[in-house]
Amino acid sequence: MKVLWNPSETPQELHSILQTIAEEYPVESSAQNANVKFRLLPDAPDGLKVSCSGKEWLIQYGRKTLAARGVAHVLAGQSCHEETFFTTFGILLDCTRGNVVTVARFKVWLRRLAMMGYNMAMIYVKDAYQLPGEPYFGYMRGAYSMEEIREIDAYAQKLGIEMIASIQALGHVEPVLRWNAYNHVKDTADVMLVDEPKTYELIEKMLQFWSDALSSRRIHLGMDETQTLGRGKFLDKNGYENPYFTYKRHLEKVCAICDKFQLKPTIWSDMYIHYAQKEMGYKDIWQPVPEEIRKETPGNVQFSYWNYYNRDIDTYEVYLKRSGELNGTAPMMASGIWTWYRNWTDYEYSFNTVRPCVEGCRRSNTKELILTLWGDDGGYCEFNSALAGLAWAADLAYTNEEDEERTAQIFEAVCGTSYKLQLLCEKLTYTGFDEEGKVIDKVSSASMLWDDPIMGIVWNELPATKLKDPIENMLANYQTVRDNTAEHREDHAAGDLNYAWTLADLLCRKIELRKNLLKAYSEKNMKALDRIAEFEIPGVLEAIENFSDAFRTQWKRSFKPYGLELMQIRLGGLNERYYELSRLIEEFRNGEIDAIPELEIKHTPSGPVPHQYFRCVTGCFFV
Fold first, then answer.
1. Does 122 lie in the same domain as 67?
2. What is the H or E stretch that residue 334 is in?
3. 409 with 448, same domain?
4. Which residue of 362, 368, 502, 579 is most buried, as measured by CB atoms within 10 A?
5. What pLDDT is stored for residue 91 in this prediction?
6. In this structure, what DSSP letter does residue 189 have?
7. Alpha helices in 526-563 (DSSP H)
């Protein structure tokens, strides 16, 4: 259907939202034929009601950002009565692993987020922005210009979405610290040098950039996972200092710079809690934060608790309470839609960690929730496949219940493709369950993709997973994805189904070849080895080329060109290893070698199955 709204009868605050979503959706202003009306719910600021009478729809909303979700319900043909618990419901999109989202694609994401009911978006950049006077910031990594960030921010404002920068002001700055130009502010490979004046000059420039670039006064400073703090150049200069004091002193200095620009800082709470435990005897998270820590913690910083792994409610509830107790400021929660170390979103992991997280937020009265989409190991996930997970999470956040059919309808109205087919492609990650339905282990498609065809490092570790018949079950999964997406390969409205098909086809061929290779080699069956060299290896090489083309297509649809080289280098290496396998088979058949050493190794696996690229492809130390 088409949504027709009358500008003279529609609250002014909704005009820019409706005009902006009209760039993608059948939404038009009409002075005479309006079929959708909007009314404010003054007594229910978190509420949304959508109802239909005959051919006319009424959207009643508590705050303007809910109106776009109301439009999505209308397009889905759904009435609803919802009330969200969260005042901030957003995402964090990782643009640091080479996968720097283009401005045009970011606008698509913002429209769809608005239609699902999200009102905040963090853009995680580390150093991937063009900082004046710092040419190595984001060098060859697709760094955003000030103009690009402002364009994204202006577009978000039209939709009522708050754009927040998520940077790093202590650790996780290895992309820029790799350059000798930053040795003077470098403590360890990924941590900045505390107490060095030039460190704070640099941080001040960083904060000024984001103060000028974005309209929001909130900024996420990161500062998580700084385990090596004070153990490099700082140790050489100052000797050992308990990292709690080093971290606290640095935080105070950075917060003072934020005050200068009237910025409201947020940091991850993990290291502060960790360091505080060591110094203050705060060893039992089930006990309240000691008063002495509360007094010492800066009052102008918000703590953000991240957890993407736990499947129980209590963990979220307790850690959120402890994060809030650090300085009495209400914390922010960060859960995850699982896009990292995977080629396609892992919905099982996402749903079964977000679900208890949402309930933990409710129990601890945590009103701000973000869903992170990380890109660890190269940003090779088809990130648009996360939209199905985000639609599910939004439905849960707004209704506190699950209804797959309702979610499917609103997802299909927003994204224009099959929800169930997107979820089916999750089988690219193999999840094994025990008899009680509990997860035993997972094997990502990325692990199987990177696995070397000759050494089989991943293959050899699979017995350590306690998964029952993992090879056959993974093969069945990949065949299911390939069969069900075959007729939909032109569909890239959300997750690119050609990307899923070509990957599933490649993984099927890889597994079948490996099985046949091990059998033929162990039996010294030369005819079977001939068939592998003559038919199966060329088939895999063709599948690699098809997947490489599909990957490039979906990459260029969403990201700047930088970072594509990571995948092309890896796939080029995989390609070459199959050529090498062909050479080895020929040499073995001709008697030039009497064995293929990699296939002779008797290995006792201990697990876990590797998932990072460099751990999958070689037994040598990878630098």
1. no
2. strand 332-336
3. no
4. 502
5. 98
6. T
7. 526-531, 537-558
Residue 472 class from Cβ within 10 Å (0-12 exposed, 13-18 middle, 19+ buried)?
A: exposed
Residues with pLDDT less than 70, the chain: 278-285, 622-623
DSSP SS3 for 96: coil
What is the pairing mode between strands 186-188 and 162-166? unpaired
Q: What is the pLDDT of residue 607?
A: 87
Cα–Cα distance for residue pair 317/325, rounded to 1 Å: 13
* 566 and 447 within one domain: yes
Measured CA distances, 305 to 294, 316, 357 (Å):
17, 9, 11
Q: Helices 347-364 and 386-399, interaxial angle, to 10°?
A: 30
Which phi-psi region, left, alpha or beta, contains residue 596 (left: φ > 0; alpha: ψ -120 to 50)? Answer: beta
Boundary residue ending a domain (414, 444, 461): 414
pLDDT of residue 285: 66
133: Cβ–Cβ under 8 A, 6 or more apart, which residues?
A: 205
Q: Does residue 623 belong to any structural domain of this protein?
A: no
How far apart CA 87 and CA 449 sit, in angstroms, is 41
Q: Specify whether 33 is located in the same domain as 145.
A: no
Quick check: is 187 in a domain? yes
| CATH code of the domain containing 577 | 1.20.120.670
State how far the Cα of 589 lies from the Cα of 529, in Å rounded to an integer. Answer: 8
Task: Based on the fold, state whether residues 481 and 361 are members of the same structural domain.
Answer: no
In the DSSP assignment, the letter for residue 129 is B
CA torsion sign, 521 to 522 to 526 to 528? negative
Angstrom distance (rounded) from CA 123 to CA 34:
37
Element housing 398 (H / E): helix 386-399
Q: List 287's β-bridge partners, or say none.
A: none
Q: What integer pLDDT is reported at residue 295 of this predicted model? A: 87
DSSP state of 533: I
Beta strands in 95-214 (DSSP E): 120-124, 162-166, 186-188, 191-192
- Tell me, what CATH number does 48's domain have? 3.30.379.10
Cα angle vertex 225, ends 359, 250, to 5°? 110
Q: How distant is the alpha carbon of residue 451 from its chain centre?
A: 23
Q: Is residue 574 in some structural domain?
A: yes
Rounded to whole angstroms, how far apart are CA atoms 370 and 358?
10
| Parent domain of 534 | 427-617
pLDDT of residue 292: 84
Of 83, 106, 122, the residue that ends a domain is 83
Per-residue exposure over 297-309, b if at least 16 CB sit within 10 Å of its own CB, e if not:
bbeebbbbbbbbe
